[in-house]
C-alpha cells in the first residue's frame, strides 16, 4: 500500500473503528477527506509573504470537493485503486451531497477563481458565509417546483477547520453576535500552494439564559441564540435580483465586517498603526455589491481604531478595494432604504454620510449640477453600486460586451466621471473541474495528442487544432461523446428515473430559470418542431433529446410557471407515439454542480439564448465549449468572444443584436408577429387553448399576457421571444440537419475545443492579479 492509502485505512480505524470493506459512504468520505487534508496541512499553514488579495463574496458555489482536491493533490488514482481493490465502487462519493453555498454564476465563478489562484501561486483568500442551509433542493410535483432545505452538513464537513481563536464580534443596532470562522483549504493543482476560503458562521454571544430557563420561559431562554444563528442560517435563493430584506443586510454586514476586522487586525499586528502600507499589503475584490458595506466598515476601522482623519482613510480605502459588476438588470442593482440601513447599522451609517459629502464636494468642483444619478444617498435610498464605483479604484464587467454596456448605457454618468476606473475581465472557468475531472475520457484524448500541459496552461489547447483534420480523431471524439451520453443516462436514471435515448442529439439548456435567459423560447421552439413533425412540415429530423435543468427562485411566480410549462411540453411530446422516436424532452430535477458535471460533457448543443444585452457573461457556455458542444446562441455575453475565437461558422448564432434591439425598442409590436406568423400563434396558443394545462392556476394565461400585453412594470414581450423565434427555429433546424454528417459536426466540435484556451479562469485570475490587485 502507498502511504496515503495506509493513512486512509488508519483514519477509518481510529475515527470510526471500522475498516475499508465495512465503512459507510459517509465514513469513507470523511476518512479520505481528512487523510487528504493532512497531506497538505503544512503547506497550508505556511504564512503568506507579500501582498494578499481577498475575494469577498456572499456566495462560493464550490461543489463537491473530494474529487477536485484529490486530483489537485495527485491522490485521485491511489484513492480509486484502494477503493476498487476493496470491492468498492470508485464512484461512491457521487452520493455525497454537494455543498451548495451559491445560487449560480456569481458563486460558481468565485469557486473557479479560488482554484485558479491557488494553482497559479496567487495568494487569494476567499471570505464568505457558512450558510447552515445552502440553496434549496428542488423536486417536481405534477410538474411544479417544490423546495426543500439543503441540509448539507448531514454529510459532515471534513474539509473545514473551525477557528474559535479567531472569532470576531459583530455589532448591529439591535444585536451583537460572534462571527466564527471555518477555514477550508484551497489546494492548487500540484499541491504547491494552499490558499484559504474562510466562511463565517454566526453564533450567539450568550447562547442560553439560565434565569429565563428557571422561570420556565424556554423559548425566551434561547431567543438570543436563535436570533444570532438566523444570520447565517440560509442562503437567499434569488439569482440576479435583490429582496431588500433586513436579514439580508445583516448577512452582508456580518461577513464584510468579520473579514475586514480580521484583515485590519492582521495588518496592525504586523505593522502597528502606520497604515501607509495597507493598500500595498491587501487588495480586496468585491464580488458584486453584496460586500460593498465593507467600504464604510474599513473607513470606520481606520478612523476609530487607526485614528486616521477621513481623507487619508478614504485614500487607503480607495486603493484597497475594487468592484466587479455581474449584472445590469435594474432590479439587481442593490439599494437599501435609509431607515433600514440606519437601524441595522447605526455605527456604519455616519461613514456613508462622510462618503456622500466627499462626493458632493467633488461634483461641485467638477461643475456637475445634476447629481441625482450620482448621489449615494438619494430619495431615501442608499445606492450600493454607486458606492462601489465611487470608493474603489477599479470597476470591471465580466465580458467585453457587458463592460461596454456598463460604460455606455447602464452607468454612463459614472464612466464620464472616472473613465480610467472601468475595465473588462472576461470570465473563465477552471479546466481542472470542468474538463480534467468531469470528462476524463476527453482529457485523456487531449493529453494523448498534445501532452498534459493544458491542465495548467490552457492556451496549449491551440495545439489540438490540426487534429480537427484527422479522421481518426474525429471518430474517437464521437465515441467519447457517446460514452458521456451513456454515463449521463445511468446517472439520470438513478437521480430522476428517466430513460435517455443515448443515440440522440443532446441539446441542453442548464442555468437558473429567468425570463431573460429565455427557457420559454426554447420550449416554444420545441413545440414548433413537434407540430412541424406531426404536420409533415419537417420531414427530416435527427432524433433529439432536449434537456433542461433550472431552479426558479421560490418567489418568482413566472419562472415557476415556465417550469410547469416545460414539464407539460415534455409530457405532450414524450407520450406522443407519432413523435417520441424523433424527440424527447426532459427537465432534470435539482440541477446543481454535480449534475452539471454529468450533463455538460454529454452535450452536442449548448443553448445560450438570452436576449442580446442581458446575460453579463455566462460561464456554462465556456464549460460546454471545452467539452466539445457547439453553441446555439445569441450575440450576448461571452458567447460573442467564444464564437469569435472558435469561428462563427462552427457555431449557430442567431437573433437580434444589441444594436438591432436599440433601434426597434420603441416600435416593437409582438401582437403583429403573433397575428402574422401562424407558427408563432400556434405555439403561443398552447398557453391558453387547453393543449397544455397549468392545473387551473392561471400561470399560463399570465405568461401569455406578459408577452402580448405586458404588465404594469414592463412592456409586452420585453425579452423579445417572438422577435427571435423564427431565426432561432431556423438555426436549430440547421444544426439538426448538419448533425447528419457526424464527421463534419465532430470537426466543428474539435475546433471549438481547440479555441477554448482563453476561457480558463487561470487567464482571468492572471488579469485580475496583474491589472487590478498588483500581486
Ligand atoms: C447574482 C446575484 C446578483 C447579481 C448577479 C448575480 C449573478 O449570478 N450574475 C451572473 O454572474 C455570472 C458570473 O459573472 C455571469 O456569468 C452571469 O452572466 C451573471 O448573470
Fold and architecture overview:
Keywords: Allosteric enzyme, Carbohydrate metabolism, Cytoplasm, Glycosyltransferase, Pyridoxal phosphate, Transferase. Its EC number is 2.4.1.1. Phosphorylase is an important allosteric enzyme in carbohydrate metabolism. Enzymes from different sources differ in their regulatory mechanisms and in their natural substrates. However, all known phosphorylases share catalytic and structural properties. Belongs to the glycogen phosphorylase family. By secondary structure, the chain is of the alpha/beta class. 47% of the residues lie in helices and 13% in strands. The protein folds into 2 domains: 40-63 and 98-427 and 766-773, Glycogen Phosphorylase B (Rossmann fold), CATH 3.40.50; 464-759, Rossmann fold (3-Layer(aba) Sandwich). Strands 1, 2, 5, 6, 7, 8, 9, 10, 14 and 15 form a 10-stranded mixed sheet that branches. It has a 6-stranded parallel sheet with strand order 18-17-16-19-20-21, sandwiched between helices. A 3-stranded antiparallel sheet has the order 11-13-12. Helix 22 (519-535) packs parallel to helix 23. It is globular and about 80 Å long. The chain binds N-(phenylcarbonyl)-beta-D-glucopyranosylamine (OAK). N-(phenylcarbonyl)-beta-D-glucopyranosylamine binds next to helix 6.
